[in-house]
Amino acid sequence: METTDKTAPLEAARKFIDKFFPECDGALLAGSAVRGEATATSDLDILVFDSKAIGSYRESLIAFDWPVEVFIHNLTSYRAFFQSDAERARPSMPRMVAEGIVLRDTGIIDAIRQEAQDLLANGPQEWTAAAIRTKHYFLTDTLDDFIGCSDRAEGIFIAGALAEAIAEFELRTNGRWIGVSKWVVRSLKEYDKQFASRFVEAFDDYYRDGNKEKVIELADTVLRPHGGRLFEGFSMGKEQE
C-alpha cells in the first residue's frame, strides 16, 4: 500500500496506543495492515486488553492519518466473543488475535493468543445431520429459483444469495470456517484454492454475461456428495406420530 504523506500503519498504531491506552495490559494491530493487503480505504484494526475495562466495547475514530477501529476488552470479556465467533463459525476475533502484531504486552498476550490458535485449529462445531439436511434443502430451493429466474434484476440478487449458500454449505460440511463479504473468498481459498477459483469464475461469468451454466454445475457439485438436489420428502417442524 502507498504510505506517502501518511504515517506507516505500525508506527501509527504504536502512537495510538501510547496516546489513548498507555496503561493497557496488551494491544495488537490486526487486519489488512498486518497481512500486507491494505488499500487506500483500509483502517487500522487494533485490539486492546485492559484489566481496568468494565466490559467490551468498540470505537471508530481518526488518529495519526488513519481511520482506526479499536476493540477494547478486559482480561476475560474476550472469551465471550471467541465463543460467539466459534458458534457462528466465523472466527473474526480469534483471527485478529492469532495474526496480530504486538503493540504492547505486560505478559498476557501469549496466553490469549494460544486460546485463539487452539480455537482456530479445532475448527467449528460440526453440523448435525438435521442441520445439513435443512441447509441442503434451502440451497436446492435457492438454486431452483436461480435456474427458473428470467428477470435479470431478480437474478442478480438470487445469485448473491446462492453464492453465500454454496460457500457456506461446502465449507461447513467439510468442517471449515466460513466468512462474510471478502472473507467468503478468503475462506474458500484457505479451504481449496482450485475450488475457490472455480467459484469466482462461475459467478463472474454469470454477472458479466448472464451465463448460468457454471453456477449450476458448481451447486450440483457441492450437493452431489449429499445425494444431489433435495425436495421430495423434506419436512421441518412436523410432529412425530
Could you characterize the architecture of this molecule?
The protein has 241 residues and is α+β, with helices and mostly antiparallel strands. Helices cover 53% and strands 13% of the residues. It contains 10 helices and 5 strands; from the N terminus they run H-E-H-E-E-E-H-H-E-H-H-H-H-H-H. The chain has helices at residues 9-20, 32-35, 78-88, 92-99, 109-122, 129-148, 152-172, 182-191, 193-209, 213-223, and strands spanning 26-30, 44-49, 57-63, 66-73, 101-105. It has a 5-stranded mixed β-sheet, sandwiched between helices. Helix 6 (129-148) runs antiparallel to helix 7, helix 7 (152-172) crosses helix 8 and helix 7 runs antiparallel to helix 9. The radius of gyration is 22 Å and the shape is elongated.
Which structural class best describes the helix and strand composition? alpha+beta
Order of helices and strands: HEHEEEHHEHHHHHH
User: What's the number of helices?
Assistant: 10
Task: Provide the spatial order of strands within the biggest beta sheet.
Answer: 3-4-2-1-5
The N- and C-terminal alpha carbons lie at a distance of 63 Å
Radius of gyration: 22 Å
The proportion of residues forming helix, as a percent range, comes to 40-55%
Strand content: 5-15%
Which runs of at least 5 residues are low in confidence (pLDDT < 50)? none
Global morphology: elongated
* Average pLDDT: 93
How many E-type strands? 5
Largest sheet: 5 strands, mixed
Keywords:
elongated, 5 strands, 241 residues, alpha+beta
Please write out the topology.
Blueprint (H helix, E strand, L loop, with lengths): L8 H12 L5 E5 L1 H4 L8 E6 L7 E7 L2 E8 L4 H11 L3 H8 L1 E5 L3 H14 L6 H20 L3 H21 L9 H10 L1 H17 L3 H11 L18
Parallel strand pairs: 2-4
Antiparallel strand pairs: 1-2, 1-5, 3-4
Helix pairs in contact: 4-5, 6-7, 7-8, 7-9, 8-9, 9-10
